[in-house]
C-alpha cells in the first residue's frame, strides 16, 4: 500500500473517531437486527428446501397410494391380484357368454337380410321382365305401325304409278300417232332453221358487215328465208340484227337465239295433221338452262317454222 493510501486511511479513522460515537444500546440494537436478519434467511432457506423435497417425493407417494388401492389381498397368504385384471377377466367371460348369443343374432339378421335380398332380386327380376315385355310390345306395335305405313306408302306409290301409266296410256291413245315420214319432215325443217344463219351470213361482203347487192333491205332477207320459216318468224329473229343504210344493208354483230339440238332429248306432239309442236330442254354456256319451242306447220302445201319461242329456266 502506498504512503498516500495510508495517509488517507489515517485521516478517515481520525474523522470517524472524532465525529461518530455509538452507545451500548445502539450497538446491541445493531447486533439484534443482524441476528434477526440471519434468522429470517435461515427460515426462508428451510421452507424452500422443504418445498423442493415435497415436489420431488410427491409423485412417488402418489404412485404408491394408487398401487395400494389397486391391489387387494387374496385368502392365500402372500398372494395378490390386481383388481383391474380381475375386472378384465370378468369382462372377457361376459363377452364369451354373449358371443354365442350375438353370433346367433347376427346369423339371424344375415339370414333375414339374405331373404330380403332374394325377395328384392325377385321383385327386380319381375319388374325387369315386365319392362322387357312392355318394351317388346311397344317395339311390336311400332314395327306393326311402320309396316302399315310402308304398306300404305307402297299402295299410294303403286296407285300413283298406275295413275301415271294410265294417264300416259290414255294420252298416247288420245294423241295422234306420228309417222316416220312426218317426223323426218319436221326434223328437216329444224335443220334448215339451224342453218338459216349460215344462209344469211353467206351474202356478206368479205371482211365487212355490209351485205352484197342481193340484200339491200331487210325484206330481202325475210324473202330469202321464206322456204324455211314464215315472214313473222324471220322478222322476229333478224329484225334487230339488220340495219338499213343509204348505201345498203348491214349486219349488226350480236348473239343469236338458241337453235335445235338434234342429238339431245326432245318431244314431238301432233296438234293436227298439218301442225306439230316440238319442245326441247337443254343447257348451254351462252343461254344457261333453257327451253325452246318450235311450231312446224304445213302452209300452202309447204312445211315451215310458223312459231318460235325460248325462255330461261
Automatic annotation (TrEMBL):
The chain crosses the membrane at residues 39-61. Residues 81-181 are annotated as: Disordered. Residues 87-113, 119-132, 140-150, 157-181 have a biased composition (Basic and acidic residues). Keywords: Membrane, Transmembrane, Transmembrane helix. It comes from the Bacteria. This is Uncharacterized protein. It comes from Virgibacillus salarius.
Amino acid at each position: 500500500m502506498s504512503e498516500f493510501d495510508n495517509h488517507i486511511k489515517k485521516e478517515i479513522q481520525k474523522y470517524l473517531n472524532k465525529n461518530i460515537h455509538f452507545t451500548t444500546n445502539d450497538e446491541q440494537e445493531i447486533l439484534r437486527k443482524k441476528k434477526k436478519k440471519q434468522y429470517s434467511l435461515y427460515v426462508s432457506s428451510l421452507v424452500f428446501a422443504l418445498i423442493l423435497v415435497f415436489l420431488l417425493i410427491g409423485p412417488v407417494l402418489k404412485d404408491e397410494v394408487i398401487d395400494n388401492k389397486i391391489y387387494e389381498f387374496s385368502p392365500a397368504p402372500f398372494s395378490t391380484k390386481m383388481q383391474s385384471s380381475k375386472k378384465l377377466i370378468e369382462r372377457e367371460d361376459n363377452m364369451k357368454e354373449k358371443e354365442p348369443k350375438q353370433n346367433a343374432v347376427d346369423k339371424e339378421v344375415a339370414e333375414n337380410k339374405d331373404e330380403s335380398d332374394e325377395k328384392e332380386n325377385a321383385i327386380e327380376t319381375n319388374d325387369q321382365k315386365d319392362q322387357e315385355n312392355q318394351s317388346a310390345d311397344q317395339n311390336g306395335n311400332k314395327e306393326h305401325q311402320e309396316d302399315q305405313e310402308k304398306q300404305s306408302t307402297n299402295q299410294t306409290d303403286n296407285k300413283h304409278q298406275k295413275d301415271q301409266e294410265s294417264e300416259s296410256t290414255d294420252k298416247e291413245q288420245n294423241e295422234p300417232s306420228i309417222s316416220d315420214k312426218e317426223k323426218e319432215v319436221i326434223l328437216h325443217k329444224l335443220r334448215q332453221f339451224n342453218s338459216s344463219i349460215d344462209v344469211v351470213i353467206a351474202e356478206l361482203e368479205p371482211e365487212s358487215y355490209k351485205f352484197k347487192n342481193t340484200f339491200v333491205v331487210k325484206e330481202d332477207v325475210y324473202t330469202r328465208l321464206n322456204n324455211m320459216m314464215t315472214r313473222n318468224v324471220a322478222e322476229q329473229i333478224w329484225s334487230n340484227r339488220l340495219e338499213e343504210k343509204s348505201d345498203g344493208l348491214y349486219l349488226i354483230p350480236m348473239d343469236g337465239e338458241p337453235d335445235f339440238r338434234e342429238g339431245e332429248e326432245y318431244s314431238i306432239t301432233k296438234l293436227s295433221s298439218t301442225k306439230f309442236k316440238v319442245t326441247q330442254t337443254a343447257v348451254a354456256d351462252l343461254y344457261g338452262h333453257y327451253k325452246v319451242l318450235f311450231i312446224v306447220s304445213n302452209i300452202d302445201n309447204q312445211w315451215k317454222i310458223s312459231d318460235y319461242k325460248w325462255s330461261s329456266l
